[in-house]
Prior knowledge:
elongated, single chain, 773 residues, 8 strands, four-stranded mixed beta sheet, 34 helices, two-stranded antiparallel sheet, mainly alpha
Amino acid sequence: MSAWAASSVTWALGRTGRDPGAAFWAELEAKLCTVADELEPQGVANVLWGLAALEHRSSPRLRDALEAAAVKHCRFASKEGGRDGSKRGPPVRAPPRRDDRRRPNEVQSPGFKPYELTMMFWALTRLGDEPGMELRGLFEAQCGRQLHLLKPQELSMVASAYGRVERVAPLLAAVAEESVMRAGLNNFKPNEIANLMWGLAKVHARQLSDGVNFGDLDDRLALDDPEGFGALTRLLAPGVSGKALVRQDLLDVFVDEFSARAHEFTSGDMALSAWAIATLTAKPTRYETRFELDGDGSSATVEVAQANELPSKVAALEPIESAAVVRVKDFSPLDFANLLWAFAKLNHTPGDRFQAEFEEAVIEKISKFDAQVLANTVYAYAALQLPGARNVLPLIGLHFKDRLHEFKPRELLMVLWAFTRCSYDPGADAMARFERAMRPMTDNLAPDEVTQYLWASAVLKYRPTEGALRGFETRIVDCPSRFSGTPIALTLWAYATLNLPPPFAVMDRFGDELELSRADEFYPQDLSLGFWSAAVITTQPKADDVPMVNALDTGARERVLRQMAKHLGSLGATSVSPEGLSAIYMAILAVEMHSPSLFAELKSNWGHLAAAAESSWRATKGKGPTVSNLQKAVGKTLDELGVEYESEKLVRGGLIRPDFVVKGKAKIVVEVDGPYHFSVEPSAASDAGEELEDWFGGGGGETPDALEKDRFGFGSVLRPLGGTILRNQLLSSWGWNVVTVSYRDWVKADNDTSGGAKREYLKGLLDQAGYVS
């Protein structure tokens, strides 16, 4: 069998979709290995295409032989690539002879033609294998020379090939520009647009992950290499270098074309294109602060444009939404996840009909969702705050809990984030499973991933077990990547909220990072929370009785507090929410309580915020109180004991409003702490068993039935939250004796229907505080 015949057979098998079986493949591959060097450019492309079409992975020997043949043909530089740029029709390739011989006057055009070149490279990457460095370099140079000749299908194949192997290359920026500016997206078929955009998006995602700058890539290329990367950089159109793979003006054209032709796209191409657009779109910044100096430069005003965090309508996506509703029954699980994730990323809330149709389809097909699809779906429902989340999240929770080992860290974190976003408590058992799934991955987590897990745990009021926490702390200390401002602030917030004393090594690492930090590394809101967190941690009771250890811990904590305080000067009173200003004021009170000298040292950092912060704090405390059933029950028992009190009375000039202020000679306040004043280790708790019903009833805050059930399970060990402890510390520093009534102790006493146990329990607490009737 000649080289021509072998290539023709392989092509025919791919064309017909016929798999001839292992024995035939073995014979054919052996033959192809012996004639690979004799194959013409089209023969190489045909063999590779046939193998790719059948998804047949060839032997390493055959692949190496075909790559070597491709390298040989790529070395022939042809600016026209076999296509005549004039008005004449393209040259007709002479039909191959069966004896593979040519007439004396018949000249074979050297090198790959554009369709052969792109087919060859696409086929080599079809199964996710990346061509060798030499072939990749030659391909990029040849493709760069022939870029102006590539047709829509060929441009699409180049982009999808690079996307499949996630290879960052400056060629892709030129492909995007050629597709829009010369070839014209209106000449692309829908599946060609989808594959083109998907490839660009995959490479863009890898570019962001690796921190690659296309300008830096160009600088490293050897410009004196006529056959490699350097030749490509000289041929690329102006303006394609820089950080962006797809310029915004080009992306706008992609969006407009997709929107105008959405009805032509299949469900898969529609979801893929939407995912690609969302991936290529820059994530909006939550806050954008602009300083404007007045004429003499003596002052600055801060204008803040807060990004629209609430989902809204995006006009360009409405035709896509309408087309999706028509094809909803055709969507695969991955299509669901891609489209919903894209809507969430682009901040587009679909209409009621779309929501109803998709919710029904998701519930029907959810058993077929893999880990990535589950994560993307739950993220989208939470990000868009869709009402259907009440139905979808519990179902997803049931499906993922036994499959957490399949999840990657990012996917686990997306699910956790979704739970926090929707105020959905998945239960102690689920949180314990999350922790077990994360622990083997801890050594490879990025700084923001460590932060996201600890932050989500703190929001849900579950503190990590000691072993898991040590693992996260080791990663914080040893991680080679830098912790920037916001991850540090939110990690500190998790420690402060859960009342976890961070070890010296963690605070020392954060202190080193903050020494080099800039104010623009923080979102204003996160900076306010970081300052509050550092203050809470600084005032935490010390766990170690060794004075030297305590001194080291105190020094490390105060160092972090100083670094957080130094950036407060970058904030304006309007750049932080009222909650953020209240957090700053509580931190100021904590610093003053902790150390008057430290307070005097640092107060200039927050002087410009002090009045607004205090005003926000007082406004919060002055709002009408919400009295829980638990608090009412304690008040009733105080009445039965004959204890006189004032309910929800402001003290210290309105700075704090205790639940009860006891009248009498002794200064006593009674604070009633329900479930949301505590955290628990998930492994130490048992599921309350009714988290879904609780959530459907509203979730969050003090539940009316707090007397009847325990969200953590009555066997768990509670730990007061950092804010609760700071409240008690402040009251104590102002001369008050603080009596805290734990909901769990109250429920235990409440088992006595006569009320005697409750009266005895409460009287004992009051006696310890020095109450005299």
